[in-house]
Each structure stands twice: as C-alpha cells, then as structure tokens.
Write a structure and sequence with these properties.
The chain contains one helix and twelve strands. The protein is of the alpha+beta class. Strands 1, 2, 3, 4, 9, 10, 11 and 12 form an eight-stranded antiparallel β-sheet that branches. Strands 7-6-5-8 form a four-stranded antiparallel β-sheet, with no helix packed on it. The radius of gyration is 27 Å and the shape is elongated.
C-alpha cells in the first residue's frame, strides 16, 4: 500500500510539472508575439533605420551612415527649414530613400544667384553649409513653391541631385517619409543629427 501511494504522489508531481512547463511555454510564446507586434508597429508607424547612399549630405552625413527616421515627426506639425528629411519620389520604384535638407517652405519663392540661396528675395545667411552653389538648375529663375511643396538641397551642394534638378524637383509633403534624427553608425559618430 505504501509503494502505491509513493508511486501516485510521484506521478502527481510529474503531471503538475508538465502543466507548469506548458504554461511557461505559453507565456514565452505570448511574450515573443507581443515583441514582434511591437517591433512591427514601430517600423511601420514610428521609427525606421535607413542608410545614407552617396555623398550629397557631406559633412553632416556620410555614405553608408545608418540613420533613424522618425516617420511620425510631421503628424502634428509641418516640416521646418533645415530639417533633414527622407523621401521617396512617386515614380521611384527602388527601395532606398533620398535624404536632403529642407531649404524652402510652402508659398515661398526660391532663387539661386551668385552661389547664394534667396528665399522671398532675402539671402539665407545661416545655412548649415558654406559652399557657394555652382549649379543653379531650375532655381536660376525665381521658383514659387506651391501649397505643401518643399525645396530641398544636399549639404554637399555641388555634388547633390536635389530640387534644382527636374528629375527631383520640389518635394510634396506626401512624398516625405519622415525626419532623420539620429545616427546609429558608424559608432564613432553615434548621436543626434542636425
């Protein structure tokens, strides 16, 4: 009789452990599912990493810098002058983003003369880059930006394909994917982007 009781109690413990194990597995699966959904939501609706392609934003950004893009930056307010943005053109079928700096805002006039940028007839003196602009492109004549149109240019202005060129042109707010706000790599440059 005693042997039988021991056998049963050992069996009961074994059954209890299996239930614990199954419960623990269920918790892990639920936790992993929550993390995957959260990560997907962040990428889809919030923050995404993008890679700078080319030299058009030197010295602010370099080729192959890995950056964070805030996709919700302009949900409650409009882009500002000198924000660094990522955008995709409507007809762009390639996967990478164009990354440039906003110079002109909706309703403003833009003109490039004598290597300088004029907004509404006044020269911009606080540009984040110092080079004289050698190619005026479409901004040789006064351009008037429409509602929700932005004029963008690369900091490396003499080696940048941007709003001065017909194939890029003015960027509509709908084409803006978000604001670049942080550099992940290289690690030596880790930090906020201005």
């Amino acid at each position: 009789m005693r042997l039988r009781r021991r056998y049963r109690s050992s069996y009961d413990r074994q059954e209890f452990n299996i239930k614990d194990f199954i419960s623990e597995i269920g918790k892990w699966i639920l936790s992993i599912l929550v993390v995957v959904i959260f990560a997907y939501s962040i990428v889809t609706f919030g923050v995404q990493s993008v890679t700078m392609i080319g030299q058009s934003m030197v010295p602010a950004l370099n080729n192959q810098d890995v950056l964070l893009l805030n996709k919700r930056a302009y949900t409650f307010h409009d882009p500002k002058r000198y924000d660094i943005i990522a955008f995709k053109l409507k007809e762009d079928t390639e996967g990478y983003y164009n990354i440039k700096r906003i110079i002109g805002l909706p309703g403003e006039t833009i003109q490039i003369m004598n290597g300088r940028i004029f907004v509404d007839g006044n020269v911009l003196t606080d540009l984040p880059f110092e080079d004289l602009i050698m190619t005026e492109g479409t901004a040789l004549d006064v351009l008037t930006l429409g509602d929700e149109e932005y004029f963008v240019i690369g900091d490396n202005c003499n080696s940048s394909e941007d709003s001065r060129y017909v194939n890029i042109g003015n960027i509509s707010k709908k084409e803006i994917s978000g604001k670049i706000f942080f550099r992940l790599s290289p690690r030596s440059e880790l930090g906020g982007v201005k």
